[in-house]
Design brief:
Elements lengths: L1 H22 L14 E6 L9 H10 L6 E4 L3 E2 L13 H5 L9 H7 L3 E8 L4 H9 L1 H15 L3 E5 L8 H20 L3 E6 L9 H4 L5 E4 L8 H6 L7 H4 L9 E6 L4 E2 L2 E2 L5 H13 L4 E10 L2 E3 L4 H10 L3
Parallel strand pairs: 1-2, 1-11, 2-4, 3-4, 4-5, 5-6, 6-7, 7-8, 8-11
Antiparallel strand pairs: 9-10, 11-12
Helix pairs in contact: 6-7, 11-12
């Protein structure tokens, strides 16, 4: 009798599991790059405890024809000695309603027609933790793929910035990890973007990393103190020419533009002005670059990023009128 009851119980468990899995789409059409220009934003709702979510959704709805996707920082992984990535960080502020909101941030973005990407960021991490994370590629990539499909994501953005300094050999490990992730994500209808920069040995070999991802989003190009500094690099950033070098496919290039009031010494950087950003975006458009990534959205009364002058410039780029 006990055996019979256990058998029935097992069968019921399998049926329930099957129903749950069929309720969550396990596959999507393979991801295909958009032939149109894209404008993406990073957004961290945790910066103000979720208090600016409604205001952020409002400004995005006002500019929904300009913004393609939003990359959400919903928390950070530490990778401190652990091999597995913790995806529960995406639930509290991004996948669950916050405060008096009736829908989650993820659903709110989808409701206004903006694509959602999750940003897997690392903070306070030694390079060894990142190496362990990459060594456990099969399990971590599969977890991210299934989580992304269930959440209906447009893609994953990896913002891995190991400290202390990484080595050039880590770029090879990263490229191999990303190649596996890109294949898995693309087959499930998601893209893979990674944040890169000249200051990190793991992130600066653009030619090596480019074939393994759908987009390189350059953090180094956020700011500079002159147009020439933005092209060739100065003490505050730049190095745009590195991103558009002949050995980096234009289709993979995504310059990051910083929209916060950064100081260059005792004054606001050249790159914070309307004229500078018109010049930068015109150059990006002329070079046939498919995406601009803006760091980052904040909508609290004391801090409005981006400032209002940005929206018409980004709209002209998206519409192809630059």
């Amino acid at each position: 009798a006990k055996t019979s009851i256990m058998a029935v119980s097992c069968k019921l468990s399998l049926v329930l599991a099957s129903l749950i899995l069929t309720a969550i789409p396990s596959t999507q059409a393979a991801w295909k790059a958009d032939s149109n220009r894209s404008v993406s934003f990073w957004y961290d709702p945790s910066a103000y405890g979720g208090s600016d979510i409604n205001a952020t959704l409002t400004v995005l709805e006002e500019n929904k024809d300009t913004v393609t996707s939003v990359m959400l920082y919903c928390g950070f992984n530490t990778f401190n000695g652990g091999l597995a990535v913790d995806l529960n960080i995406f639930k509290t502020l991004c996948m669950n309603p916050v405060g008096n909101n009736s829908v989650s941030l993820v659903q709110g973005l989808k409701n206004i027609g903006i694509k959602v990407e999750f940003c897997l960021g690392s903070v306070g991490n030694g390079v060894e933790g990142h190496r362990q994370f990459m060594a456990n590629a099969t399990a971590n990539i599969e977890s991210m793929k299934q989580y992304g499909v269930a959440a209906g994501l447009y893609g994953w953005n990896l913002d891995l910035e190991p400290q202390p300094v990484s080595l050039p050999s880590d770029a090879k490990l990263y490229a191999a990890f990303c190649a596996k992730a890109k294949s898995a994500f693309n087959s499930a209808g998601m893209r893979l973007t990674i944040d890169v920069a000249d200051w990190s040995p793991m992130l600066t070999n653009f030619a090596l990393l480019a074939p393994s991802v759908d987009r390189l989003l350059d953090m180094e190009t956020y700011h500079a103190d002159s147009y020439n500094g933005w092209l060739v690099g100065d003490a505050y950033g730049g190095h745009y020419n590195h991103l558009i070098a002949p050995n980096v496919p234009r289709a993979v290039a995504g310059p990051g533009l910083g929209c916060w009031p950064m100081k260059c010494g005792d004054h606001l950087c050249w790159s914070t002005t309307q004229q500078a950003n018109e010049q930068r975006i015109q150059r990006i458009a002329a070079d046939g670059i498919p995406e601009i990534a803006v760091f980052r959205l904040i909508q609290v009364p004391s801090t409005i990023w981006p400032p209002p002058f940005w929206w018409p410039l980004l709209a002209k780029y998206k519409q192809g009128t630059f």
